[in-house]
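User: Mind token order:
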Amino acid sequence: MDSQTQLTAEELNEIIQLIYTQHGYDFSDYARSSLLRRVARCMTIAEFKTSYELKYHLINDKSFFAWFLETLTVNVTEMFRDPIFYKELREKVIPTLASYPIIKVWHAGCATGEEVYSMAILLQEAGLLNRTKMYATDLNPVNLERARQGIIPLKQIKEYTTNYIKSGGTNDFSAYYTAQYDNAIIHKEYREEVVFARHNLAVDQVFNEFQLICCRNVMIYFNQELQNRAVHLFHDSLSPLGYLAIGIKESLLFTDIKEQFEAISPLARIYRRKK
């Protein structure tokens, strides 16, 4: 079998429509080139030679769809990813958040939760976690369940510890987890501070008002129209002067409300909603 399954644009459109009709997930505004690669990768792993085989299993096998959705939407993530981002958060955002009696933080597209727990540690070290309500959302229920468990392969802890130190962390990183066999389990006090819930940026609406929204390395998979919708959603979900953090490779330049934000840290892609 070829190392990469080939799909036509027409076949991809049929698969997108089928997924929406059968399962209610709308991928129509995802970046086509990226989505094409991801669907083809799923087919290669499943050893499907044709789109007909894929469509048959999407219609008739619920367990297959769960696997397909997980594989299609998996995002590479890690604790304290891009340490400069967390360093800038410590210095330029956290001091302002401290002025709020109740702080609300939303991680949109939280994947398996590593960055959510990084934020919880940051807030704990600033003495703010006990008055912060953290919400973490993803469209993938498997991601959410993994995130709730707070289980991280122990082999990744060395890299995460290095990230933590580069981000300005000064504590012993092992104080935040318990080693158990081949895994590290984030301490319960951090896991209990997060509300994990399903939310789809393509179709769902505002559900609260936040002082900080993090949506990092998610919008790179959206086309321009969906990116614009997402940024509108974030703007409407932020309190006046609230902060929006996006991925290092992402930008607000192509949205029609870019003037509603000011850059707090252009390097780390942290913005602030204007009044």
